[in-house]
Amino acid sequence: MKKISLILMISCGYFLLFSLGGCSNQQEPTNPAALTADVYFPILNNTKYIYQGEGNEYASYDVYNDYTSENQVQQRISNGGTVMAKVITVNNGALTQTFSRGEVYHRENYLDKTGDNEVLLAEPIAPGTTWTLEDGRIRTITSISVPVSTPAGDYDAIEVTTEADNDTTIQYYVKDVGLIKTVYQAGAAEISSTLSSIEKDMPFPQTIRFYYPNVDENLVYYEDRVIDFHTNDVSKDIIAQAYKEVPNGGETVFSANTAINSLSLGDDGIVYLDLNQAFLSEMNAGAGYEEMLLKCIANTFGYYCNTDKVALTIEGKPYSSGHLTFRAGEYLQTQVEDAVKL
């Protein structure tokens, strides 16, 4: 299994990117009468944002918008040590972080999930606007016109300051652009993340490890394959189609009509994978081959979701074939140690 990195995002996740509308040179000064929170959060697809950091090895990070809706975006934030998913909602004159989850290496749509209620930016967009976060921190718009230079351009930004007992975080946002810089200060220590570049009209490439049986050699093989995902692509459908492609040396796991009905990682650390009936009806395998198929499925989806437990069902019911039957609550255990790279 992939090694889990338990690295805390700097300053409790303050280094959050707002979707950026583009890069430009010096911005015109803001017009206070025209400022609303939503103009700092244009929701864009297929765009990657790169931040360069100073003061900490994890202050540099990349962001890709995995899923979007009319007023929401789910961001994939990768800092080289961990990957986080965050959902931001634009509603009622505020930008609010409504969900977050750490160690999210797979793609899963969390737009409908809740759990957080952190207001990132609130109206009126004017100096002195202040609100208190649920953990007691005080967040204030301290200026609406601050010149900020970044590798991506020079901007006239608003400044938002968050005060905690022992530290301060300052964030700079630009109309129609988004977050361009974050500065975290604690005593004499200072850590910053600054917008470096924006890459548009591009997919998110993800390496997925597929496992395949070889009955003749009694071995399980694997192949690492780069799969391109675009914003709002349905992961389960793309992965199912990719799994039907069999490399030389491997044998079929997903038949032509096999489909994934659902794929998710539960809060209990178990992957919940539901396949359609075609997986069983088109299998045509003896007991030994079937066991190898299930081992490959457990390895593929467990490794992808960074866990070692996979609960497999067929059309919503516990897995049952002529050879193997599982009770409700039972799951497959990954066994990747003896797999051989193709």
pLDDT under 50 segments (min length 5)?
1-30
Class per helix and strand makeup: mainly beta
Question: What is the number of E strands?
Answer: 20
How are strands sequenced across the largest beta sheet?
Answer: 6-5-4-3-2-1-12-11-10-9-8-7
Number of domains: 2
What is the helix/strand order? HEEEEEEEEEEEEEEHEEHHEEEE
- Sheet of most strands: 12 strands, antiparallel
Strand content: 35-45%
Radius of gyration: 23 Å
Mean pLDDT: 90
Q: Sum up the overall morphology in one term.
A: elongated
Q: Termini separation (Å)?
A: 17 Å
Share in helix: 10-25%
DSSP summary: helix tally: 4
Provide an overview of this structure.
This protein has 342 residues and is mainly beta. The protein has 2 domains: 10-199, no CATH class; 204-341, no CATH class. Helices cover 10% and strands 42% of the residues. The protein has helices spanning 10-13, 235-243, 278-281, 287-304; strands spanning 48-54, 61-68, 72-78, 83-91, 94-102, 118-122, 130-132, 138-150, 153-163, 168-174, 178-186, 189-199, 204-214, 219-229, 260-265, 271-275, 309-314, 317-318, 332-333, 340-341. The protein has a 12-stranded antiparallel beta sheet, with no helix packed on it. Strands 15, 16, 17, 18 and 19 form a 5-stranded mixed beta sheet that branches. Strands 13-14-20 form a 3-stranded mixed beta sheet. The protein starts with 9 loop residues before the first helix and ends with a strand. Mean pLDDT is 90; it is low at 1-30.
